[in-house]
Task: structure prediction
Amino acid sequence: MNIKIYSNKEVMGKAAAQKAAEILKDAIDKKGKATFVIATGASQFEFLESLVQIDSIDWSKTTMFHLDEYVGIHDDHPASFRKYLKDRFISKVHPGDVYLIEGDDKDPEQECARLNRIIGNYVIDISFVGIGENGHLAFNDPPADFDIEDAYLVVLLDEACRKQQLGEGWFKNLDEVPKRAISMSIKQIIKSKNIICTVPDRRKAEAVGNCFKGEKISPNCPASILKKHDNCFVFLDDQSSVYLK
Result:
């Protein structure tokens, strides 16, 4: 794992995007295609804004998988991660193949099975992720399951996670925040050849400190598993990194 700290989140986002572009272009040059996983949320704003402005990536030669989505949320809901990706990313770069999580499917377990069949045919060149205020990775809240083999699973969201979604302005009140989500598993994320983890803002500082200080890796700090990945690049700003300095 490699950690870099930047003066503000705009500079951080641009640097993370440049690294992402380098990895994507290298995969396309070597294999003729690249496969990536993409995250959403407020922590990804600056990164994605910079990434879509890089015009040297042949997005038509990419395949995109979706990191997580709420159960029971339609894709026109303001908090829908599918809506987020369509508005902020897909409509701007038009990836070649796109596999989104249908969170409003009547049978979430069947939706996981569908995605598991598809992703099983791919090697993930790079995953773009963030870290939650409770240290979660994707929607794997603590204590996270580090051992489950399924690529996608239905998870319960803890109160700290749900309060974060409320605090970021995606919902009007806590009761509106779903209690379940479909998430990519920890094991599937770690299978990625490369990982870019982008974490801005002071509200994430405690989680960053808990996950990355010292050598300990624990399901109670799910993102601490990233320390085991040789090609994980963590991008922090001056606020999220205060407990690491």
